[in-house]
Amino acid sequence: MTHKRDISFIQSLKPLGKYLADHRRMFFFGLGCAFLTNSLGMAAPQFIKQAINAVEAHKAISLVMMSVVALIVLKLVQGVFRFLMRQILIGISRKIEYKIRAELFEHLQTLPLSFYQSSRIGDIMSRATNDLNEVRTLIGPAIMYSFQTAVTVVFALPLMIYIDLKLTLLAFLPLALLTLSYKKVGTAIHDRSMEVQRKLSDISAKVQENLAGIRVIKSFTREDNEIRQFERLNREYLDCNMRLIKISGILYPFMAYLGGLSSLVILGYGGVLIVRKVITLGDFTAFFMYLGMMFWPMISVGFVLNVIQRGRASLARIMELFLRQSEIMDTAVPAPGNSPEHPVQEMISFRNLTFTYPETDRPVLWGINLEIPRGSTLALLGPVGSGKSTLLNLIPRLYNPQRGTLLVDGIDVLDWPLASLRRCISLVPQDTFLFSESIRENILYGRHQEVPEEEIIQIVKIAGLYDDLETFPDKLDTLLGERGINLSGGQKQRASISRALMINSSILLLDDCFSSVDSATEEKILLSLRDFLKGKTTIIVSHKISTIKFADRIVVLEKGRITQAGTHEELLQEAGGYYASLYEKQLIAEKIERIS
Q: Does 342 reside within a domain?
């Protein structure tokens, strides 16, 4: 059973092996400095022993002075190696922390939307910060102190035995009890550390969610409720920490007690040996110093044990993220002729497409058959939850459709290199997101080269944002708050449209991006867009017929199925259909709005 646990312990630290291997030369050099630091320290008691024996034997004072000088030089050299040891080993831990953080962030970029829809952002942030800090402490201080302890024991124990075997056995008898308790205590620390980190993730997730939704909280005057919920999570986190501290609170005093007990035994029995002239006063002093050197490593074992178990728990949580792999990736052998520079030339084809979201068993799209010719404009209309956004998200493979059900240029979308496919597509998502940068940087987010000011102004005018820019203090260089909080809903949507148009891709996907724009501005934008969209394949999702009536073809989705398809005029002829019914309702609403 013990052997299996040891294997489990080693396996839990195995992921760190590749990071340490990158720094193996400096790592072993750092361990060499640690070896010299502690081995040189073993000589200090010998110089003190010689000085005391010389004083006791009334020998020349020069012997005492030589011992003092040698001790000063020894401590100076030891200090240099101690500095190098900490500089190298702690420095390596910081470099590995940097590498893991960079790899983790890169890995998070590859994970699909389904992962983020089922995970809490606060929990991911906690793993990338707090857990990573625990792992860094495991790599640095834990390894350093463990190695120092091993070197001290290897050198000090034989020297203590050389002075007197029985005295050594008596000194270590109380400390033997400490070793027996380590395994049980270590398991408890590991389990409680995992619980602490989980509770910290809950707090991080709550704070992140609360700050992101602060306007909703204030609008519904739910501050007191949020404070109570946070108080509960904070209390649970405190209780978990207190349970962890309780173990440490018992461990450290217990170790100090055993150390004190060991010192009492040495004072008693050592005094008898001195009186009987079995050992000298110098021997006894050296022995006591060696025990002191051993005592700190024994005390540090408790600290190291705590750090290792917390680090193991945090490493396991980080590895859980690395183990999550995206199912949306390039095929092993890309389709013939598909290069990153290959542009979309032909139509988009849906062939009997049925789609079910991961970890669900109910399809959101059923038997979709649809051909979208190059350069045409398709509009999608339908009730909320009918699958319009899902259909759009399948084209750039934000989700994977079934093989053979979605083709671009006659090639299965699963065989397209992701970089090549997505470079051909601009998407304005339903949930508009702007970064906490300037308006200019948000608009140019998808461009990788310098853009003339005239081109930016032209795009901003097409998106209907130019007049608004004139009211901003720094025009295009106006800094935005969190998620663009200092813009209205309509301004956010128009900034998002500008970002998509700036890429100038051959496929443009607009997912209900005029919902917060007033009718007059919407009509102005649509007129500007018509010229811009010539030659581009465009799919527009909207709930407003005024937005989509100019489309070459309009498709109505209901409960994941296509129920109507045709031009604006053709669909109006289908009396009693969803499209004609919605059109009548919206006409009445517009008349009421004009009258009011």
A: no
Report the domain count for the chain. 2
113 and 237 share one domain: yes
97 and 246, same domain (yes or no): yes
Cα 78 → chain centroid: 40
Q: Is residue 5 in some structural domain?
A: no
Side-chain half-sphere CA neighbours of 135 within 13 A: 29
Tokens of 237: 């986190």
- Look up residue 484 and give its DSSP letter: G
User: Strands, DSSP E only, in 413-506?
Assistant: 425-428
Same domain, 319 and 352: no
CA distances from 435 to 25, 256, 489 (A): 42, 54, 15
CATH code for position 478: 3.40.50.300
Note whether 27 and 82 are same-domain residues: yes
Does one domain contain both 241 and 131? yes
- The secondary structure element, H or E, covering residue 469 is helix 466-469
Which CATH number fits the domain that encloses residue 313?
Answer: 1.20.1560.10
Q: Can you give the residue range of the structural domain that contains 123? A: 13-323
pLDDT in tens, the chain (596 residues): 444 444 455 676 788 888 888 888 999 999 999 999 888 888 888 878 777 777 766 666 777 777 778 888 888 998 899 899 989 999 999 999 889 988 988 898 888 888 887 788 778 888 888 888 889 988 888 888 888 888 888 888 888 888 888 888 887 777 666 666 665 676 677 678 778 878 887 887 788 777 777 766 776 677 788 888 888 888 888 888 888 887 767 766 777 777 777 778 788 888 888 888 888 888 888 888 887 777 766 666 666 777 887 888 888 889 988 988 888 787 755 554 444 445 555 589 999 999 998 778 889 999 999 999 988 889 999 888 888 989 999 998 988 899 989 999 888 888 888 888 888 888 888 888 888 788 888 888 877 777 888 888 888 888 888 888 888 888 888 888 777 777 777 788 888 888 888 888 888 898 888 777 777 777 788 888 888 888 888 899 988 888 888 888 999 999 989 998 989 998 888 877 888 888 888 888 777 767 76
Residue 402 corresponds to which tokens in the numbers above?
Answer: 């079934």
